[in-house]
Amino acid sequence: MTDVFHPTTEAEAADLIRAHAEAGRALALFGGNSRSGFGNAVRAEAKLSAAGLSGIVAYNPAEMVITARAGTPVAEIEAALAANGQMMSFEPMDHRPLMGTDGEPTIGGVFAANVSGPRRFVAGAGRDSLLGVRFVNGRGEIVRNGGRVMKNVTGLDLVKLMAGSHGTLGFLTEVTFRVLPVPKATETIVISGLNDAEAAHAMAAAMALSVEVSGAAHLPESVKGRFAGGGLPDGEATVLRLEGLPSSVAVRAEKLGAAMAPFGAVGRLDMATSLSLWRKIRDVLPYADGTKRPIWRVSVAPSAGHQLVAALRLEAGIDAFYDWQGGLVWMRMEADPEAALVRHYIKALGGGHATLMRASEKTRAATPAFEPQPAPVAVLSARVKEKFDPQGIFNPGKMG
Amino acid sequence: MTDFIRFMDPQPAILSRRDAIVADLVDLLPKDCLIHAPRELVPFETDAFVSYRRVPLAVALPRTTEEVAAVMRYCHKYGVPVVPRGAGTSLSGGAIPQEDAVVLGLSKMSRILDIDFANRTATVQAGVTNLNISEAVSPEGFFYAPDPSSQLACTIGGNIGMNSGGAHCLKYGVTTNNLLGVRMVLVDGTVIELGGKHLDAGGYDLLGLVCGHEGQLGIVTEATVRLIAKPEGARPVLFGFETSEEAGSCVADVIGSGIIPVAIEFMDKPAIEICEAFAKAGYPLDVGALLIVEVEGSEAEMEAMLADIVEIARRHGVKTVRECQSATEAALIWKGRKSAFGATGRISDYICMDGTVPLSQLSYVLKKTSEIIDRFGLRVANVFHAGDGNMHPLILFNANDPDDAARAEQAGNEILKLCVDAGGCLTGEHGVGIEKRDLMTHQYGKVDLDQQMAVRAAFDPGWLLNPSKVFPLEGRPAA
Lengths: 400, 479
Prior knowledge:
The structure holds 2 protein chains of 2 kinds.
Chain A: E1 3-5, H1 10-23, E2 27-30, E3 46-49, E4 56-60, E5 65-69, H2 74-82, E6 86-87, H3 96-99, H4 107-112, H5 120-123, H6 126-129, E7 130-136, E8 142-146, H7 158-162, E9 171-178, E10 180-181, E11 185-192, H8 196-207, E12 213-219, H9 221-224, E13 237-244, H10 246-260, E14 265-269, H11 271-282, E15 295-300, H12 305-313, E16 318-323, E17 328-333, H13 339-348, E18 352-358, H14 361-366, H15 375-388
Parallel strand pairs in A: 1-3, 2-3
Antiparallel strand pairs in A: 4-5, 5-9, 6-10, 7-8, 7-9, 11-13, 11-14, 12-13, 15-17, 15-18, 16-17
Chain B: H1 12-15, H2 18-28, E1 34-35, H3 38-41, E2 58-60, H4 65-78, E3 82-85, E4 102-105, E5 112-116, E6 121-125, H5 130-137, E7 142-143, H6 156-162, H7 169-172, H8 175-178, E8 179-185, E9 191-195, H9 206-210, E10 219-226, E11 228-229, E12 234-241, H10 244-256, E13 263-268, H11 269-279, E14 289-296, H12 299-315, E15 320-323, H13 327-338, H14 340-347, E16 349-352, H15 362-375, E17 379-385, E18 393-397, H16 402-421, H17 440-443, H18 446-459
Parallel strand pairs in B: 2-4, 3-4
Antiparallel strand pairs in B: 1-2, 5-6, 6-10, 7-11, 8-9, 8-10, 12-14, 12-15, 13-14, 13-17, 16-18, 17-18
Helix pairs in contact in B: 10-12, 10-15, 11-13, 11-14, 15-16
């Protein structure tokens, strides 16, 4: 039986990690287990959970900054923020529906995976809101980096490095991040009937306007049916979100609607419908189908997204929809992940990266989840890893 | 010139080989790309932190990434330290060389390589100035958001080195939030690319690590940055208060109310007087402190936000509210603010602090700052980015009086420690450089600094890149 450790203090976690480093025993790090399917299979003798390190440490709404222990449930953070009219501007996705997991997502997990949502392309990802971290490195030392102020260039920014390192550099114990006021109004402009390429043009045109679009997604016919009750008109839907003060959103919606009219039929979704739609887009609900069919999350230049899908369609059975102005492509493969093809076309279209989010155990074992890096960058990354975790005890294999 | 801050001792083995090194570098680079005559080296002996000067061994001004790589390969092979330099506008001494170092200046790499409006990106060489990017994309209705006061001169390479901010980053973030990719040369001459036109990293966020590296991890030669559509309109409004404390608590309340202006800038009485004398911006002279609050958006949106902000300011006893009536007036208001450092430099020598504090501590830190300044018998002008708590006390002193200079440095150090103790940090946007290097132990413990230095060593195990900076000279790992 694998040991599972649930330290309740940072010092206890540090002791455990030091002991494992000395014994050369690998640890699988996790929070609520809702995102444990990320990355490659981990080879570890024991598991270390952050769930016991829970609770909001400090939250001063007037400063728009919150500090919480890494194992704090995201739901608890969201509730505390909502009570003060604030939110995480990076809109972290809930991976449970897509991945078919059921744990309680933790705030440490959000940052360890650098999770974000539809607002990412204008408001940044988790890494952009994260101001400070405490973590235990692979030597069992407690390390602090960053702080709790928005502007801070004191020393090397290890905060960014920790975000998205999937528990391979350190065991996060505490995070401090920036929050923002919840917009008082949200509306969505819908343009109907555009194909993927036309939608990319329309979204780029919308982003060139001074109307502050905070969400730009394209839902082809094949996925649109999955937004049942979403209030969307017939045909493909290109959706553009506006947020802010009610009077301002109304004015901007008029302006954006008029500018989009030459592209296709324009409709508008009210606040309640918009909130529900963008939550479904955030959580990739079209592909939350209870299967293990492979799902790719691809980040490319916005204009390259639809070209990638068009190229792949000629050679593989795929279904796709787009967020981030077309630069975030969610792709569900019929059967085979077609990793070589996907990676080939990403490179050919100017670069980016694809992450295998979901697949059967067998497929995952045969397909590296993360984008392989050019040799010099891979060498550098390995050296960086060695500086945090010299014995290689954290999540071995996960990002390798 | 003062000498409290130590530089690394120049290595005699390198100094004695100076002529050979210069000859080799002349061979490596095209004509006019290497400066080595003693008289011509003088302009490179310091940056905007003028209290310290060191004449470098030579200055290389490559024109391409390949030439940068050639210089790095050579310096790496022979163990010659390298100090990268953009426009030399660092306020923390980040670009001050040392006697045994080659300065690697990026000023000849000043071409805009690609502007891609569909993807809202610009790819530029590192020597392109910050303002050049915005000017190049302005006709199409875009801009590049981070706007340090020195944006006319400072380069994007330097901005990446220091993770520069500016007045408008309250809404749009600092350099790291607007940087999509870099091409950089590692210490051994290897060229790598991080990021691109897409978002987020496929592996470790090395791009995030490189931003703000202060020239310690490599030489950035090209950058891809995010462009943003210009707002429909923008309007700065002046708010005059009787005291700094009132202005400080007004800032905290505006932010706490959920309104996020694009910028909230603060000036105390001495700063107002200095800037007004220089820029004739129309600042009220009968107030103790001034806030410049800028909102942007449609007319309706600006009206609504301003009404709320005025209401909050009234609660804090605002004396003067002045909305500008024209674009010219708005430009003048910003000219006054952005020329604060230059205008101060005309009347006195000064050093500029850069600590950041939590907003709730603004008033307290302002009060303590003036106590410290009084105790040292000096004068101070405060002008800073209040919305994000990034303070810039300008400590005025006479550089010709060594005693005065010494007291200014000591007062500055005490103010920075005050910022850290109030829950903030040593530097919000200027960088550690040499200026704040020896205060790092006040903000970070040994383990914290060791971890940072270990990461640094993953890039530059021999400590050749800008080696006198950021980390205290004592306690470094053996190279």
